[in-house]
Amino acid sequence: MNAINWFDNPFVHWTRLVTNGSRHGVNGSRLAVTLLAVNGFWHGVITRSRLALTRSRLALTRSRLAVTLLVVVIGLPVMAQPILVHPDGSATLDQRWSWGMTQSRTQKGDSPYWIGYSIRRLMGPYDNMGTWSSEWEGLPSLEDRIAGKRSVTPRQSEEEEIREAARRVLKKEDREHEKDAPKVWRKVAILVRFQRGASELECIAMQTMSSYYDLKGYPLFWLGASENGPSLDLLTRLYDRLKVSANKNEALGAIAVHQEPGRVIPCLERILTGKEEDNIRKQAAFWMGEQDTPEALRILNRTARGDRSVEVRKQAVFGISQVHLPEATDALIDLARNADTREVKKQALFWLAQRASRNVAETIKGFVYDDSDTEIKKQAVFALTQLRDGDGVPMRIEIAKTHPQPEVRKQAIFWLGQSNDPRAVETLIDIARQTR
């Protein structure tokens, strides 16, 4: 097995110090760097090396003097990141996991550590999963770091950073037009962080391996690739041992991203219908909607109608809205008409409006005139504002002019006032000019 010590920039680290009206003297300072191999890890220990200072030009303002010092540290690693890779990819995931836990116990110190592996997921070519920051542009991907590749990106001037930001935005705009591009297999890392001596893991993260991820400088024990089955077995066992709600929610997400509905849906259903607290069951409902299958829709429909918690029922309605099946629209319409709770009806109307369809618009308009509950009628007027391309404007105009209930007409007028559509403005002028 090989220990890989990754440095963002092993040669030069720039630090900019800006002071107001004074200079920070560091003459005579010395830094020392020695690399020691300890239990397979590199530990940076300070040895003698001079700290070279370059003073930048003085910038004068009316009220203060700004002095910028550029500090160049030769040989000082930035963000030393020990990564230890399992030597045998043919071992089972459980065997590799045991190896990672054993290795963690042999390391000195009490800092947290990561154990990670990857699964494959069919995704858009430009889709990413996990954490992203613009400050990470140019940093090596998680995959490159595990492979031991080093990336040295020279510091850019402020003008070049501005130009690069503009290029990123334009690139993102181009990708917006490629959402329908064929999906490709992408590697997604499952990263579990532990604190030595703690009774429970600290967090579970997911990250597309083609992007950078901040491991906080903690050691990573990398297990390699896994198939969905062993990964789901492992994560389910981890979930069942968890007590902290935040950790349970993260574990649910890690389970749900596996594209294995036959395994994932029963796991989510067990949690959704079990005795977990409502915020965890809401997460299960959310991820159920991401499974996008008839079975997931059936479970969500049942939950939206009869769960013990109104909040979980509302989350199930949202889950239904994420299912890309025609039957999901029918389910939302039926819930808006027949759910026994007003809050669930209102939720169904809202998400129904997000389904781009002329039939949906007419259905929502029907609630404005036909439902017996005034609050539902007002919610239906609001739902018309959610239709795309201004499709709901003519209907709101009609309601504002002709609806028999003044309260509903006022609701329509209010939402017309929130629109920049010229038709809405003209209608409001006409209504305002009407003689009594």
Detailed description of the structure:
With 436 residues, this protein is an alpha+beta fold. It has four domains: 7-78, no CATH class; 80-150 and 179-258, no CATH class; 260-352, Leucine-rich Repeat Variant (Alpha Horseshoe), CATH 1.25.10; 359-436, no CATH class. It is built from 16 helices and 13 strands. It has helices at residues 93-106, 142-146, 158-176, 228-241, 245-256, 261-272, 278-289, 294-306, 310-321, 326-338, 342-352, 358-370, 374-384, 393-402, 406-417, 422-433; strands spanning 3-6, 12-20, 30-31, 34-38, 41-45, 49-55, 59-60, 65-74, 81-85, 113-123, 184-194, 203-208, 220-225. The chain has a six-stranded mixed sheet with strand order 1-9-13-10-11-12. Strands 2, 3, 6, 7 and 8 form a five-stranded antiparallel sheet that branches. Strands 4-5 form a two-stranded antiparallel sheet. Helix 8 (294-306) runs parallel beside helix 10, helix 11 runs parallel beside helix 13 and helix 12 packs antiparallel against helix 13. Mean pLDDT is 79; it is low at 1-79.
